[in-house]
């Protein structure tokens, strides 16, 4: 596992790295194949534009999300790119045996040396019934062994279990350590990342309301213990951002992703609505309140407005990296947003 590098081609005004998280969104009237092809196109374009890394995330049982198998998707993305870092944002480790993840990501690292990240989360990435199908247990009060699973995963990647450990004789194939990142939406992940001396990414894009982001990152910094992979804290945040030629157009495109989140949170599982469907949807007063609450953690507008918003977040939270997720219906809207954000910062760099 390597300490994150200190430079990246595409950064904010303050030198904060910019990366991309894509959920392989499936829009109404499109297929899973279309969604995966769109994710591939986004990864290729992100590399061309100089984004630092491109992550996908594990979700299950959601018609709007096609990234149920991150390792499989990352192998495909690696075959279509050559320099950008690729990884999971994240793999939900309790859904898997640590040895399986060690071998999957070891295989990815063998295929694409020096380019693979492994972001880890402990949520199921699904509803409780689907979590049971994945984990074969339903008791939420059972022991939380996430930290123990990470420890086991690291030993499998390094092939260095103590001699008296039952797994010491197992030969993980391939055994290739990859950089680990702890993901979180509460103080649990912040404490764990600090104790293990690992980078920490807080999910500001869906858990940033009410001061949660600042509290989690402050806790991470205050409790951080240097490790053999990281000498000082490396705080990151996930950010929902969408840029378009005009603020009006950006908000029109963003409403589709916002409605998709609203439907998900109310248990109405379906593909991502189109912008036209979102514009015509009969929102209740309570739903409008929820949309406004979600909008407080989003950065939406023209390229200049989004760049200013990202700079403000970077300054407010003192992060080293922001991973941008674009909630939109179509590939053209996502590509345009990615391009406009990169152009905004390229102009800043040229002017400087």
Structure description:
This is Luciferase-like monooxygenase. InterPro entries: Bact_Lucif_Oxidored (IPR050766), CmoO-like (IPR019949), Luciferase-like_dom (IPR011251), Luciferase-like_sf (IPR036661). It comes from Nakamurella multipartita (strain ATCC 700099 / DSM 44233 / CIP 104796 / JCM 9543 / NBRC 105858 / Y-104). The protein has a single domain (17-351), classed as Alpha-Beta Barrel (TIM Barrel), CATH 3.20.20.30. The protein is 46% helix and 14% strand. It is built from 13 helices and 9 strands. The radius of gyration is 20 Å and the shape is globular. Residues 1-8 have low confidence and may be disordered. Helix 2 runs parallel beside helix 3 (98-111) and helix 3 crosses helix 5 (146-158). With 352 residues, the protein is an alpha/beta fold. The chain has an 8-stranded parallel barrel with strand order 1-2-3-4-5-6-7-9, surrounded by 8 helices.
């Amino acid at each position: 596992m390597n300490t994150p590098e200190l430079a990246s081609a595409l950064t904010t005004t303050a030198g904060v790295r910019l990366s991309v998280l894509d959920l392989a969104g499936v829009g109404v009237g499109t297929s899973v194949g279309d969604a995966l092809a769109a994710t591939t196109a986004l990864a290729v374009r992100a590399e061309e534009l100089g984004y630092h890394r491109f992550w996908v995330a594990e979700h299950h049982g959601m018609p709007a999300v096609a990234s149920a198998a991150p390792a499989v998707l990352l192998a495909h993305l690696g075959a279509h790119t050559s320099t950008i870092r690729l990884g999971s944002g994240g793999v939900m480790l309790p859904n898997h045996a640590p040895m399986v993840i060690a071998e999957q990501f070891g295989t990815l690292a063998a295929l694409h040396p020096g380019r693979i990240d492994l972001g880890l989360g402990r949520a199921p990435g699904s509803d409780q019934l689907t979590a049971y199908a994945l984990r074969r247990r339903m008791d939420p009060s059972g022991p939380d062994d996430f930290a123990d699973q990470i420890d086991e995963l690291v030993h499998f990647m390094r092939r260095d279990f103590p001699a008296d450990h039952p797994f010491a004789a197992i030969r993980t194939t391939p055994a290739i350590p990859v950089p680990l990142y702890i993901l979180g939406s509460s103080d649990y992940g912040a404490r764990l990342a600090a104790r293990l001396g690992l980078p920490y990414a807080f999910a500001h894009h869906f858990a940033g309301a009410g001061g949660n982001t600042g509290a989690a990152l402050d806790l991470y910094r205050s409790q951080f213990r240097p490790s053999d992979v990281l000498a000082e804290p490396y705080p990151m945040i996930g950010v929902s951002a969408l840029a378009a030629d005009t603020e009006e157009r950006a908000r029109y495109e963003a409403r589709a992703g916002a409605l998709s989140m609203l439907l998900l949170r109310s248990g109405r599982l379906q593909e991502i609505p189109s912008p036209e469907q979102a514009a015509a949807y009969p929102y209740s007063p309570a739903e409008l309140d929820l949309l406004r609450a979600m909008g407080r953690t989003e950065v939406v507008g023209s390229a200049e407005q989004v760049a200013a918003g990202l700079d403000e977040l970077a300054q407010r939270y003192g992060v080293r990296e922001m991973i941008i997720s674009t909630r939109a219906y179509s590939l053209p809207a996502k590509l345009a947003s990615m391009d406009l954000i990169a152009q905004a910062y390229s102009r800043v760099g040229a002017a400087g």
